[in-house]
Amino acid sequence: MELIKNTRQTADKTAIIARNRAYTYGELLDQSVRFAGCLLEGRPDLEETRVAFMVDPGFDYVCVQWGIWLAGGIAVPLCTTHPLPSLRYTIEDTGAEILVASGAYADLLAPLIAEEGLRQISLEEEGEIPVSLPEIGPERRAMILYTSGTTNLPKGVVTTHSNLENQIATLIDAWKWTERDRILCVLPLHHVHGIINVVSCALWAGASVEFLPSFSPEAVFEAFEAGRINIFMAVPTIYFKLIAWWEVQSVQRQKNISACLRNFRLMVSGSAALPVSVLEKWKKISGHTLLERYGMTEIGMAISNPYHGERRPGFVGMPLPGVDIRLADEKDQPVGTDQPGEIQVKGGNVFLEYWHKPEATRESFTADGWFRTGDMAVLEDGYYKILGRNSVDIIKSGGYKISALEIEEVLRQYPGVRDCAVTGLSDEEWGEVVAAAIVAAPGLNLDNLKNWLREQLPAYRLPRRFILPDDLPRNAMGKVVKGEVKKLFQDIT
Predict the structure, then answer these.
(1) How far is residue 413's CA from residue 364's CA, in Å, rounded to a whole number?
(2) Residues 27, 491: Cα–Cα separation, whole Å
(3) Pairing state of beta strands 14-18 and 208-211?
(4) Which of 4, 238, 267, 397 has its CA 20 to 30 A from that of 223?
(5) Between β-strands 431-440 and 341-347, what pairing exists: parallel, antiparallel or unpaired?
(6) What is the pLDDT of residue 431?
(7) 248 CB contacts (<8 Å, ≥6 apart)?
(8) pLDDT single digits (tens) 351-365
(9) In terms of DSSP bridges, do strands 50-54 and 74-77 run parallel, antiparallel, or are they unpaired?
């Protein structure tokens, strides 16, 4: 495992900063090996035993994850905010035999531990350094992460050590990571974005990761102003919240923050479409054009705007090195230039399988081995533009395929539209009609908005139904849940 081997070259360097304490790479490796010994209990190899763990982001989290890998197990990180039924589903679906939980999480999971007869390990247990550790080949399964389950129950995405190394090494090169970097982690660690892009890339490069105990705009900016951080990665919702907080500060505080941000090396946005309005506001504040990229649980990162070169607003960029991309029609045939198609991916970054779902795995790949992402895009002048999920963001109305994301971008340009979500509703005449839910500022005149939209959009793309909710339903990552938006419409019609 190259990620862990690299630590031997930087043993005395700071790897992790958490809860006002710094930990070296040497401490990280030592504690990870000890935890592997605790897991093994004298066995030579866990042999892909699934180990579920619910641990706050920080030093302990990484030690547990690395310890599982060193012992030959499969890491199953649990979401620290999920209710017990969701945790039960993940544990039962993976067939986890060992559960690691810290603090209050152990109390939450106690009934499940008893029912399932799981072996429980506390972080307080002091493991001994094992006599030997198993040899872990690149083909071995390393991790199971769960999809969001937008169309069905969540599926367990299985990645091998080879998959993870491909994903990390590609980003190290593409985003020019070095041991001089220091990144602030505010992302949950049961998703690729936090696990791979932030923590694993930093530690592979010999850089440092600083963790916040919980997210708040004030705490983030205080960490920035300390002058240690030079890389930041977040979802669009976090940038939206940071902008809102910055806008209500004194002029002097705004200047101090902006001056600090201009010293950063890299700022990245992902996990959801980045509104152009957010990108432009953040650029005015920070002097940085956010690097937007495209990826998903099954493939890690696949497409990215360049580190050097034009970062085109509204586009996710070009294929990363070692990743093959094509756009295909409903028959898996490549489409022509400037034609919309499904993003299909090949490469060492692509996952192995959906856990114990061979049929779902087969259906996710074409006959010639391309992974079907379910995301629609168009290629314009060498850059890919995401049109949305084929299942929820592509509206089929009157023979047209309409991108909900493109209409949302237009709506956000109107003064008084704080946020919005566009979706398709079933209709006998049109198949689907375009509907828009709008989070409105006080005084928004809907008739004026409709008249303005007629000047901005072709007639077939105009929303035919509107609602004005106080807020929009979002998931744990802050992403609007389109299925819930549809339900809002259904409840009032």
Answers:
(1) 36
(2) 55
(3) parallel
(4) 4
(5) unpaired
(6) 83
(7) none
(8) 999 999 999 999 999
(9) parallel
pLDDT of residue 476: 67
Determine how β-strand 291-296 pairs with β-strand 300-304.
Answer: antiparallel
Whether the Cβ atoms of residue 347 and residue 363 lie closer than 8 Å to each other: no
What letters, b where the CB count within 10 A reaches 16 and e where it falls short, cover 176-185?
Answer: ebeeebbbbb
Cβ atoms of 437 and 482 within 8 Å: the answer is no
pLDDT tens-digit profile of 35-88?
Answer: 999 999 999 999 999 999 999 999 999 999 999 999 999 999 999 988 888 899
What amino acid occupies position 188?
Answer: P
Mean per-residue pLDDT of the chain? 93
| CB-CB neighbours of 354 under 10 Å | 20
Dihedral pair phi/psi, residue 331, rounded to 5°: -105, 15
* Full 3-state SS string of the chain: CHHHHHHHHHCCCEEEEECCEEEEHHHHHHHHHHHHHHHHCCCCCCCCCEEEEECCCCHHHHHHHHHHHHCCCEEEECCCCCCHHHHHHHHHHHCCCEEEECCHHHHHHHHHHHHHCCEEEECCCCCCCCCCCCCCCCCCEEEEEECCCCCCCCCEEEEEHHHHHHHHHHHHHHCCCCCCCEEEECCCCCCHHHHHHHHHHHHHHCCEEEECCCCCHHHHHHHHHCCCCCEEEECHHHHHHHHHHHHCCCHHHHHHHHHHHCCCCEEEECCCCCCHHHHHHHHHHHCCCCEEEEEECCCEEEEECCCCCCCCCCCCEEECCCEEEEEECCCCCECCCCCCEEEEEEECCCCCEECCCHHHHHHCECCCCCEEEEEEEEEECCEEEEEEECCCCEEEECCEEEEHHHHHHHHCCCCCEEEEEEEEEEECCCEEEEEEEEEECCCCCHHHHHHHHHHHCCHHHCCCEEECCCCCCECCCCCECHHHHHHHHHHHC
Q: What confidence score (pLDDT) does residue 6 get?
A: 77
Terminal Cα-to-Cα distance of the chain (whole angstroms): 56
Other residues' Cβ atoms within 10 Å of the Cβ of residue 53: 25
- Cut 0.85: pTM above it: yes
**In this structure, which amino acid lies at residue 251?**
V
pLDDT of residue 398: 76
> Which band of pLDDT confidence, cut at 50, 70 and 90, is reported for residue 175?
very high
